[in-house]
Amino acid sequence: MNNMLTQKHLLGLENYPAEDIKTIINTAFQFREVLDRPIKKVPSLQGVTIVNLFFENSTRTRISFELAQKRLSADTVNFSASSSSLKKGESFKDTAQNIEAMKIDAVVMRHPAPGAPLHLTEFIDAVVINAGDGTHEHPTQALLDMMSLQEKFGKIAGLKIAIVGDILHSRVALSNIHGLQSMGAEVILCGPTNLIPPNIDELGVSVNSNLDEVMEWADALNVLRIQRERMGSALLPSVREYRSLFGITEERLTRHKKEIVIMHPGPMNRGVEIDSQVADGDQAIILDQVLNGVASRMAVLYLLCGGKPEENQA
To answer: Following DSSP, what letter does each residue of 254-266 receive, concatenated?
Structure first.
């Protein structure tokens, strides 16, 4: 297979070449046109077999990847670890090598342990795409976020992007920080001080826990899900307090008389980190992000798995 990027795998956006990010986003816009056609399918990855290897529950990301694979005419196999031989004691290495023995071309993997996709590359020759590893990275989410910003503003370089919420536990935040900075955007993090990782400013980002100041500065807010499972713990005193300090409410948005783009990776906690009126309002591009998610995952799969250009296909 011909990989059209400089890297064989997509494990994360830390130190990932800006040229590759640009190639993925530009290719994603071409696939976005495919998704607007009556027949939303191209034969680009016919004969390529891709395994979706999910060791952790996922609805949105898994469906988005599956749809991207079907739109490219790839053969797909879904492997859910909860019902697999791993429950019977088979090791991660055995599982990986058994899957590779079936002549698989690529593996899309989600795993609760940070670094698991990198570990997988030590056992198999297939292309590995990280669909989220613990609190580490979620590169395809950041790519679709950047594609959505490019679509909205016509550029990424020079944009002022605020990431708001639980940065500490967010793989989306980390991939966005790396990707946005590679592409020349400025990034500010905003959230409760105990949910901002220590020494995060070493990555070149600013931190400001005053949401109103951040909104005055930002072109776009990427609002992260507050993980309700952490509510009631010492991390967050109450939903009401969080919402009053960091919730993107219609009242707060109205107070800032400026155009500000609202993004959210989903799933949303309406009425906590974001109000329904805001999520469904004119300034939100949340549903564009979902469609761009399929297009950008098509681009990643196509470029890493050596897809054939459409015009060269019979």
So the answer is: HHS-S--EEE--S
> Do 175 and 139 touch, CB atoms closer than 8 A?
yes
Per-residue pLDDT reduced to its tens digit, 177-235: 999 999 999 999 999 998 999 999 999 999 999 999 999 999 999 999 987 665 556 67
Q: Which residues, including other chains, have CB under 8 Å from residue 89's CB and lie 6 or more apart?
A: none
| Known catalytic membership, residue 88 | yes
User: What stretch(es) of the chain map to CATH 3.40.50.1370?
Assistant: 18-137+293-312, 139-290
Q: 9 catalytic, yes or no? A: no
Catalytic residue among 9, 32, 138, 264: 138
- The CATH class that applies to domain 139-290 reads alpha beta
Note if the pTM is more than 0.85.
yes
- Topology (CATH level 3) of domain 18-137+293-312: Rossmann fold (3.40.50)
Is 138 an annotated catalytic residue?
A: yes
Query: Among this protein's residues, is 308 annotated catalytic?
Result: no
